[in-house]
Specification:
Elongation Factor Tu (Ef-tu), domain 3, 4 domains, six-stranded antiparallel barrel, four-stranded antiparallel β-sheet, 22 strands, disordered N terminus
Length: 375
């Protein structure tokens, strides 16, 4: 056996052929990648979510709506007889006094009726005088025995008949004179004309509205309010009215009348508000805005993005601070505001709920938190 001081048969990396070196490096990288994959599989990524702590906040519900200033009392004025409009003396916006003439009808027919009725009255008066004279003569003759009782009774009946005929003629004359007066339409109070429905030459029928008169006096702000607002909220304790053109002017108001009927086409209820000391800027027909503030209460509010769904019901992701695990809990929504969702039930003060990052969460999943209530 030959002795040799040669080095052991070990390959140095530098002595490995270049192609073999590349293969060796590739195998090493593959091994490292496999180790990383095993490490990742054994350590899953924990979702990071933004959370917030539930707290009771003052919930003063507010609302607003547009309406119009209208008179407390308004009347539709109309002729009580038919005829052709002879003249119209006022228009929309004109102020009138009680008893002022607003329009007239052609009264030719009515004047003829009055003349005929007066002639009938005069005729009946003459008949009554004749009957009275006959009755007096027969009474005198009957007292002397020259006239029978039957003839006296006949004279009495004729006299009474003449009296009744005169009464009927006088009633007809009164009716004719009243009809003549109805051809002139007059204002029934001081106020302003807010509507006009007739023109000269137009033929009108009895009780057809010719003018609408807004009486001077107290004013109302009139609004069409959704029925569900009244049924759910009740009567607000505080209402302020402002002209659309002058929002700096604020007038206190209170509900005076709520219509019992619902407008089926709009689903609204007519509400009239009594104004307290309205300023001169609030005139008839002015557009106004009502700012309503309902009774204040304490409720939990959450951002819109925190709301999810569970079996078709609103729900919120909760995070248990002890285990850092999630659970989806249903909640009851009081209403949806512009920026928040106001809850009626479901969350209590101190509950930690997810604000962002809950789209892909599962029940009983561990999470990491950030945000106002990060744990």
């Amino acid at each position: 056996m030959l002795e040799s001081d040669a080095e052991p048969n070990i390959w140095r990396f530098s002595e490995i052929p270049s192609i073999s070196r590349f293969l060796f490096l590739g195998l090493a990288l593959v091994s490292l990648s496999a180790c990383d994959a095993q490490k990742t599989a054994s350590s899953p990524t924990i979702p990071l979510v933004a959370v917030q702590k539930a707290a009771l906040e003052a919930d003063a519900e507010e609302g607003s709506g547009a309406g119009e200033i209208k008179p407390r009392i308004a009347s539709d004025l109309s002729f009580k007889v038919s005829g052709r409009v002879n003249a119209r003396y006022v228009g929309v916006g004109d102020r009138v006094k009680s008893g002022q003439i607003l329009a007239t009808l052609d009264d030719t027919e009515q004047r003829a009726d009055v003349a005929s009725s007066r002639a009938a009255v005069e005729s009946q008066q003459a008949s009554l005088r004749i009957a009275e004279s006959v009755l007096k003569r027969r009474k005198a003759l009957a007292e002397t025995g020259a006239l029978s009782r039957q003839q006296l009774d006949s004279a009495i009946q004729e006299y009474q008949s003449a009296q009744n005929d005169l009464s009927a003629a006088l009633a007809s004359l009164a009716t004719a004179e009243d009809t003549l007066k109805q051809t002139v339409l007059r204002a029934d109070a001081d106020g302003a004309i807010t509507a006009r429905n007739i023109e000269a030459g137009q033929v009108v029928q009895p009780s057809t509205a010719a003018f609408t008169l807004a009486h001077d006096g107290e004013l109302d702000a009139v609004f069409n309010v959704q029925e569900n607002v009244l049924s759910a909220r009740g009567i607000p304790p505080e209402i302020e009215i402002s002209p659309v053109s002058r929002p700096d002017i604020k007038v206190k108001a209170k509900i005076r009348e709520v219509s019992p009927a619902v407008d089926r086409s709009l689903g609204t209820v007519l509400v009239k508000l009594a104004l307290q000391n309205p300023p001169p800027e609030m005139t008839l027909g002015s557009a106004v805005v009502a700012n309503v503030r309902f009774a204040s209460s304490k409720r939990v509010k959450i951002p819109w993005q925190s709301l999810y769904s569970l079996d078709g019901k609103p729900a919120v992701w909760l995070v248990d601070p002890a285990t850092m695990k999630t659970s989806l809990k249903t909640v009851s929504v009081e209403r949806y505001d512009q920026a928040d969702v106001v809850l009626a039930d479901g969350l209590k003060p101190g509950d930690i709920f997810v604000v962002e990052g809950g789209q892909f969460l599962r029940n009983d999943e561990k999470v990491a938190t950030t945000g106002e209530a990060a744990l």
